[in-house]
Structure formats: structure tokens, C-alpha cells
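Look over both lines before class:
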Amino acid sequence: MDWRIIWEGKWWPKITIFAWLVSKGRILTWDKIQKRGYYGPSRCSLCNREEENQEHILNKCLYARILWERITSLFGKTMRDPSSIPNTIMQWGKGQFRSRVIRRIWNLSVGFVIWFLWKERNRRIFQGRSCEPERIWEEVCKSIKETVLSETWEEEDWRMNQEEGGIISNLNMEFSMIYPRKKNRIGPQIQSPNQFRYPGEHFIKLNFDGASKGNPGPAGLGGIFRDSKEKKMWVFAEWGGEMTNN
């Protein structure tokens, strides 16, 4: 197996580690916990029909299958192996798309699906709360969207065919939502009125702030002096006394 599919997948770090554990068959489902001598309800907490093991909860469970069907509907295909979730993870990178953005969304989807399935399982066991599959799918799409929009893209990365454009539309994304990088900006630079400026020559500027624990309550303040050449700075802080409404 090519483990670079996992470690170079650029998922969230916790999802990368979780996917690695899944590929090694090491997540602590009830079948493994019982082998350590512990006893408990071995039934799957998602469907309450069959015994819990890794393949069932992430792959074969009726609850999990709904999410995999959502992926098939979104992309028009899937690389899911019904018999092996590790094979699904390893084969996922073979999906071919023209757009770099769509390839990124595709690669993220498998990690988010298995992660949110696991989180839902744990929420039901440890918190006694549950969500419907549709809600989990919304969380998957939201996480994909936030991850993609937080990354750096060029306009050509968003060039796609009609089928790929439908995927973007279903996720409510578009290029205009990306804050473009500004290269070799020409023209006057507009400074915000709130942007810090060093004082003129022969002047010293004081910036300060204060806070209190309650009102009334102990209060303090701190500040920093700067000269025009940024060669001298004095920092002071004081804590004590009472702040009142007067």
C-alpha cells in the first residue's frame, strides 16, 4: 500500500492520524475493546442492529451507507469498496477530475466522512445525543467548503467542465468567495485609519490599554512608548486598585 495517500493527503492532522489508524485496523471499536477483557454493549450505536466493528460502523452500517450515497450523488461516482474501508481510503486518490479544486474536494470528502461517522458514534456513546445522517452530511459539506476556501487558489484552478461546475454549485461555492492574492500591486497604498504609525521626529507616542476583573473590581493598565526611529521602547504595566462606576 502507498501510505503517501494518507500522509500527503493534506487532511486535518487529526483526520490524517485517524485515517492511518483505520488503515491499520486500530480504532477502538467494541470488538477490539472486548478482546482486552472489557464488557459492554457491543451493538452498533448508529443502527442498533449489528455488532460494532470497524468495517461495519464506517462502511456497511445503514447510517454510514447514507453518507456514501451522498458522495456518489455529489460527484456522480465513488471509489468505495463495500468490503474494505482501508481499501476505500487507499483507492480514493485514483478519482480523476480536471479542476484542481474539484480534486481537492474529492480527496477531502473521504476523510471527513469517516471522521464525522466516528464523531457521531462517540457522541451517542459518551454524550447520549444523536444527529440524523442529513445533519452529518451538512457538517461534511461545511468542513469541505471551509477547508477549500481557506486555501490559496488561482483563477485557473477553478476552470471546470459542466459536471464539475455542478459539484461546486451543490456546495454553494464560487471563485469570488476566495480572497485573491495580490501580486506586484501598483498604485498608492491606502492605509487604514486604525493602522499604527510611528510618531514624527522629536515626538514619543504612547499606546495603552486597561482592563478590570469586574466592576467594581481590581483594575490594571499597561502601555508602550515608541519614538520616531523605533530605537527606544519603554513598556510599563500596573495592576491594583479598584475600578468603580464613578
Summary: The longest strand covers residues 217-227. The beta strands are 204-212, 217-227, 233-243. The chain has two domains: 4-177, 204-243.
